[in-house]
Amino acid sequence: MTHARAFPIVIAAPSGAGKTSLAQELVRRHDDVVFSISATTRAPRLGERDGIDYFFIDETEFTRLIEADELVEWATVHGCRYGTLRREVAAAFALGRTVVLDIDVQGARQVRQRMPEAVLAFVLPPSGAELIRRLEGRATESAAQRASRLAAAAGELSALEEFDYVVVNDDFDAAVAALEAIITAESCRVARHAGLRQTAAELAAELRQLIQRSR
Ligand code: 5GP
Description:
alpha/beta
């Protein structure tokens, strides 16, 4: 039977909407979904591990990655640089796996241009008040950083219409289920299946044989 070609799914959202938890849960639940570990110049937060959450690198190394064309996309977000490594995406594709890109809106736009096969999903918080509550509950950023993320959220929302899908992260399990449904539907797209003509021809031949035998 035919298998869909591997494709990237971009999950973007304002900070605090829960996209990283959603991306991690998708990967945890599905062996055929992998996470693209980004490179960043941001310092690791408590509990973050190099090579698992991010590849934590310095400015010089980040510039080298750009110049060597080793990034699919990159952007400056909240004063630090973040980028998707070509080798992360290529490794997932080589294994035929769906690759999740947890990136910002600027990065999503670049992916749209450079990888037209990508699927873009935008995660919304159920309300502004809930977004603020979640951000404040994180305690991973200072008050000034939280304020800057909230200000950025308003701008990011204006990109919503550039995305293919929207998922409201009110109930976490329902939001994961929606993302799973998106991946399932996208992998059923005729255009994602190479050799479909061959599969259809083989099925038709098998049917003809069965009809002949039953006569
Ligand atoms: P954080 O510092 O909270 O981990 O991430 C800050 C923002 O940068 C989030 O919106 C996150 O999705 C985004 N980000 C993480 N990795 C990448 C990347 O590789 N490229 C881009 N463009 N944004 C990224």
